[in-house]
Amino acid sequence: MSAADEVRGLLRPDLRHLRPYGAPQLDVPVQLNTNENPYPPSETLRRAVVAAVAGIAGTLNRYPDRDAIALREDLAGYLAHHLGAPQVWAANGSNEIIQQLLQAFGGPGRTALGFEPSYSMHPLISQATGTQWIEGSRDDGYGLSAAAAQVTSHQPDVVFITSPNNPTGTSVPLALIEQVYDAAPGLVVVDEAYAEFVRAGTPSALTLLPGRPRLVVSRTMSKAFAAAGTRLGYLAADPAVVDALLLVRLPYHLSTVTQAVARAAIAHRDEPLATVAALRRDRDDLVAWLRGRGLTVADSDANFVLFGVFDDRDAVWQGLLDRGVLIRNTGPEGWLRVTVGTPAENDAFKQALAQELTR
User: Fold this and answer.
1) CB atoms inside a 10 Å sphere around CB 244
2) How confident is the model at residue 122 (pLDDT cuts 50, 70, 90)?
3) pLDDT at 5
4) DSSP annotation string for 322-349
5) CA 286/CA 30 separation, integer angstroms
6) Distance from C-alpha of 95 to C-alpha of 74, rounded to nearest angstrom
7) 196 contact partners, CB below 8 Å, separation of at least 6
8) DSSP H/E element including 188
9) Average pLDDT of span 26-53
10) How far apart are CA 29 and CA 68, in angstroms?
11) Cis, peptide link before residue 309, omega less than 30° from 0
């Protein structure tokens, strides 16, 4: 027996068939597959980050603030909606936020429900935490008109609603979130990782928090803040939810450096958020261009676009890759997802796709 087989035999049986999560990381000229903000931090922000790290470098022999109070105060100020630090929690990316929520409110003997297609880490983290995953469904157009009825039927301990949804880019009306909350016996988590990219007039679930102690709204700094390398996710919820997460968080889970860099980015947020407006405009132009080529495109409130429908999407994906453009082969059968990049990257994608469509 090989060492790999011996170790695999010791692994939990429900994990043995899984493969590590991750989008392809390929060295190609145009990378539009992971929904990153394509604009790097400005010179001003880079200087602020350097100064922030230099300011705490002499304290790295000490553990960080394990409750990240100053960071949470800054995040609460950014979110507004009359929130304070007791209503905000932060972790290493939104995935750790999801993991902590499932550790505290899911686990063996409990269930989590999500409406697919949606963010693929929700079921994976559910399984990793021993939470039974229930695969809910969407209606035509990938809406959630039947979501509350599914919640009533399954009575899950945790419900995930992704708005804007990944990979479709569609937002969920607040009325539907209210219906799900009223039907749910447990926690309702609204994953708003792409909230800053929504079209004008699209409200956030943050407005629903007052009077709803079982509602959680999660966010990330990876997208709009152009800080994917910082690894900072956060949530807003009733203080009782935050207190519950203290029971499962690892001690000192956010490094002093992470907290300092995140605070610098929040303090200079006007600069990265200015790129969001440009990305929204380019997204809408990209949607129009794709539809002009006769393709079906989902309405997007995110920084990516889902388009199709292809008889052989694998071949289209490979054809683009052969031309130096990497997008994501994900979503419903026949569909592909492309991140909105810089104007030059978007033009390269358009040129490659146009060539592929006429091949």
Assistant:
1) 18
2) very high
3) 84
4) HTTEE-B--SSTT-EEEE---HHHHHHH
5) 16
6) 21
7) 223, 224, 273, 276
8) strand 187-191
9) 95
10) 38
11) yes
Q: What is the pLDDT of residue 289?
A: 98
| Residue bearing tokens 């409200």 | 203
- 10 Å CB burial of residue 165 (0-12, 13-18, 19+) is buried
> 165 with 116: CB under 8 angstroms?
no
- In sequence order, the 6+-apart residues with CB closer than 8 A to the CB of 5 are none
Separation CA 221–CA 92 (nearest Å):
10
How far apart (Å, rounded) are the C-alpha atoms in residues 346 and 339? 9
Mean pLDDT on 50-66: 98
Say which range, 13-22, 126-135, 162-171, 256-265, has the weakest mean pLDDT. 13-22
Number of residues that this document lists for the chain: 359
Mention every residue, 6+ apart, whose C-beta is less than 8 A from residue 191: 94, 98, 119, 122, 160, 161, 162, 163, 218
β-partners of residue 114 are: 135, 160
For position 15, what pLDDT does the model report?
A: 87
Mean pLDDT of 209-220: 98
Q: Are strands 215-220 and 233-237 parallel, antiparallel or unpaired?
A: antiparallel
Residue 169 zone, left/alpha/beta (φ > 0; ψ -120 to 50; rest): left
DSSP state of 328: B
User: Residue 282 corresponds to which tokens in the numbers above?
Assistant: 């380019």
| Residue 129 reports pLDDT greater than 90 | yes
H/E segment holding residue 236: strand 233-237
pTM of the model: 0.94
Instruction: Locate the DSSP E strands across 32-186.
Output: 88-91, 111-116, 132-137, 158-162
